[in-house]
Amino acid sequence: MTELNTVNAGANPDLANSLVEQALADKPQPVEPARIIPPSNNVVVLPSGYIGSDGKLRTEVEVRELTGADEEALSKADTLVKTWSTVLSRGVVKIGELSVTEEILDDLLIGDRDTLVLGVYKATFGNFANIDAYCIGCKEYKTVAFNLNEDLKVKTLADPVNQRVFEVFGKTNRYLVTLPTGSAQKEISVDPNKTDAEIKTILLEKCIIEINDSPVISRNQIKGMSIPDRQLVVEEIAKRAPGPQFEDTEIDCPNCGGKVVVPVNLGTIFRY
Ligand SMILES: [Zn+2]
What we know:
The structure is a single chain. The chain is of the alpha+beta class. The protein has 10 helices and 15 strands. Strands 2-3-4-5 form a 4-stranded antiparallel beta sheet. Strand 14 (249-252) and strand 15 (259-262) form a beta hairpin. The chain is globular, with a radius of gyration of 21 Å. Residues 135, 137-138, 253, 255-256, 258 line the site of zinc ion (ZN).
């Protein structure tokens, strides 16, 4: 469960104790010398997975704890997307049996990338995130210890190979669509001054494979779509996208009994 602290969780001995307990419980068990199994908190299972050029689906990923050198690299990232890209390129070790590359990371679905950012966070800081949330009753910020393993819903694909490509039927057109990957996320973030409509165009250009059996080869095909069709495809993508479901979470304040809305997203979780 989510725990609410009236003091900063870093200075809270109860939380510190529970983290120590957790760390001890997570301690890897001795294994046979021949079996090389990383400690369980360094293995992440992707909600969809990486499909290589060999067509094989890989879902198990090895991540590692971030260090001071990584912290320095992260301090140079000036946007959130660059921060997550840095976390991934430094903290992800292997995807299946493959050593990680930028190309592989760019090919991952956004929900898989989010899952890995959380995995690196957990390998580094543990399973709790301290999130500041405002209590209207107490008229002050509280620090909430959010349990990343128990309190965060994760949407998975029942068929991770075939469900990432789907059809959407607009007013008159048929669209063949794939779910967005890291490369779409990166391209959207290149220019922070883009409008919502421009972002929508880039997202759709990256995700629509065909319009009525014609391959999408130019941004003009996306700009030529009707506004309701553009909206429909964006909604269908959002509806299907697997990964952690970030949403504001309401909990009861133990001090005043009022409601505290905890803003749960990668930005509020991954503070260091
Ligand atoms: Zn309160």
